[in-house]
Amino acid sequence: MPPLQMVRAFEAAGRMGSMRKAADDLGVSHSVVSRHVRNLEFWMAVKLVTSSPRGLRLTREGEIFHAAVSTAFELIATTTEELRPPSHRRSLRLWCMPGLATRWLGPRLPQIQQMLGETEIVLRAIDRLPDFSVGEAEVMVGYGKPQDMPMGASELVSPRMFPVVSRDWLAATGPVERVDELARAPLIHEENRQQWADWFRAAGVHHDALRGPRLWDASLGFEAALAGQGVALATRLIAGDEMARGRLVELFDTDIRLGAYFFIAAPSRRKDRAIRKLHDWLLDELTRSEAAAASSGS
Predict the structure, then answer these.
(1) 99: exposed, middle or buried (C-beta count within 10 Å: 0-12, 13-18, 19+)?
(2) Per-residue pLDDT tens digits for 115-125
(3) Which domains does the chain have, with CATH numbers?
(4) Distance set, CA 174 to CA 59, 166, 178, 185, 289 (Å)
(5) What is the largest CA-CA distance in the chain?
(6) How far is residue 47's CA from residue 206's CA, in Å, rounded to a whole number?
(7) Neighbour-count burial of 172, counting CB atoms closer than 10 A to its CB (0-12 exposed, 13-18 middle, 19+ buried)
(8) Whole-structure pTM value
(9) Which of 70, 184, 221, 223 is in Cβ range 3.0-4.6 Å of 188 for a Cys bridge?
């Protein structure tokens, strides 16, 4: 059997789709993860991963081995949870995408707490999947394209995404008359420029190199837009309150949906009554919020 630290690094790399994200996930350096994966390949005498423009990819052998080790880690987590005393199951650690956690979920925590009774919610705003095999969290509300959602995830809502700017920015720069003019504006990006590129593609706009700062997540981008630093992509779930106050303005009338929020629970807790209730509540409330935003028309 190969050394466990090699297997853990490989499992994280395959799950996260990148050595860097796997390093963040495990709390070690990028070079440590890369070394463990290379050593595992040497130990097994087979190629497990390859590099691509979109990040790390598993080979056929890598996919087979990753499925096996993922199942093994889930089995360990499930057995551990079953053996723990009931007194240790009173909290529910919920990870959520930062923008949604701060702008939509946070203000609703008292409702969730009341619904769940004695189960205490512990909310963390973060944009990576927890490692359920070591008990980092019980639930994650993530965001992604349907084809990229992790195994076991269920879709909650696919919100409309649109460009927003502050009124101060509009006053200083003047109105943006056409969608294709946005490509020349200072755009606020997340970790990379892919989301804006996908949005322009969906809008039928061809563009050259996109400008603007790259920030870590949607929450930072939202704050930058509020500060008048440029144009950000947002949804009504996140930007609705600031739009109602007049601090942010939607540019153009578009109906573009780039992905969906999803719900995934630790395999050992998927039948837990509190988690099922949380899933149903999130599905109902997010659907209602998005429908209300669509009907408001502004």
Answers:
(1) buried
(2) 988 888 999 99
(3) 4-83 (1.10.10.10), 87-153+259-288 (3.40.190.10), 162-250 (3.40.190.10)
(4) 51, 12, 12, 11, 31
(5) 65
(6) 38
(7) exposed
(8) 0.69
(9) 221
